[in-house]
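Encode chain A's predicted structure.
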Amino acid sequence: MSGGQEPVIGIDLGTSNSVVAAVVDGQPRVIPNRAGQLLTPSIVAVSRNGKRLVGGIAKRQAITNAENTVHAAKRLIGRRWGSREVEDARKVLPYELVPGPDGFDVRVRMGGQVYPVQEISAMVLAELKADAEAFFGEPVTKAVITVPAYFNDGQRQATKDAGAIAGLEVLRIVNEPTSAALAYGFGRQLDKKVVVFDLGGGTLDVSILDIGKNVYDVVGVGGDTYLGGEDFDRRLGDAVAESFAAEHGGVDARQDKMALQRLRDASEKAKCDLSALPSASVSLPFLVAGPDGKALHLERQVTREELERLTRDLVDRCIDVTDRTLRDAGVRRSEVAEVLLVGGMTRMPRIQAAVRAYFGREPSRGVHPEEVVALGAAIQGQALLHPEQLASEPLLLDVTPQNLGILVAGGYFRTVIPRNTTVPTSQTHVFTTVQDNQTAVRIAVLQGASEKADENELLGEFVLAGIRPARRGEVQIDVTFDITADGILGVSAYDRVTGQRQSIQVTATSGLSEEELETLRERRDWELPAVAPGGEDPT
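Encoded structure for chain A:
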């Protein structure tokens, strides 16, 4: 089916669901999983008898095995242990999070074993890889994987590591909104400025692109990597749980892991129903036991109006991010020709209404919100591996999503390359010494949005020695940042007088050492499916 050429796949590794696609006979198409579904839940579990489960079969047993069922791993990948997002997740997730060996990254305890988040994501990727191999009837080893545009270097590297653990050569990491725009413009002669509003299960991305003559020029990105459908579900679930507690003498169903998972699933379903209906029912018989040991049942009607009231601030945050993205990019709303809605949460009428009100125009419905990102990734993969198979090869011009700079005196952060700078790029700034007769300087490379260096992420550091002794402020040092089209950052420092030079290539860390990554790549004892994808739920 791949026409005798090595197939390449595009993968949208989502918070709630993942999608795999490929270009077949010149057209991008979504590849169904082995159960015949186009969406694969991004859920991994270890059943009570020790079998590894991925996708729909893992989701079906989540209620009875919540503490060993991992969902929303994308919200944790590449995060630092102790960060605000991780601490928030620890309060609401039914499974246990633990720090990595050095206390840097996040790990998951599942089935009595501790897994790096990258390995959890790798299990989902391996399942999609197996689906593609079943579709093509041959091995698949090359892929393009998408990430939120606002992911930092560590999160991108962690996603790439997950691909490597799954046995994939990741040709490129592509921003999700850019990928969506690529699918939207495929085969069309467009010349317009487009905004992609991408609200999925766990993240919000807003990207502005100039599309013309098959060139996709990203002029601005913004987002929130901890804002998505999971938050809407939780708001509704909390409201239902609180009304249940008020009705039953303060019994909080959220304290029971099985009840919490049932409540989460019912809230998600009700939220989806409310996109089409004015009201929905949440019915959970035998939810928990009361103080007297008798079973308590939950039966409650929720309305679209109530959901909109509960999540008004979340919708406002979406519009605030959108407004900030346009202002940072210097783009007026009147310049935007089309707004694409991407991600399952954009099915919510209130989201559509907010976007419509902000831009003053009806958003485009010309793309499938949950499939378009994977389709764009498939097109990019085909362009990288088999460009001759495409009628015209797309050119992506991306930008840096975060400010890049160095630590300066007083603990401040000085930006060298501002966010939304098109890559590849090279920028040089002149710095100087802060002490008399200083003969060396430490260059600490950071990324982030804060003026305080310690609130940003340290990417790497090095020392430039052999500087000419002089009074402070007299020595001039050129610090140059170079970013390639693949996002590889190199930083160099040069003393104009002595000619001393020092440099590093900044390699983002995902929390895994090279040795651990290689061990995980070779191990993959979970690679073969434990049960048939459409089989019975194990117990």
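The radius of gyration is 25 Å.
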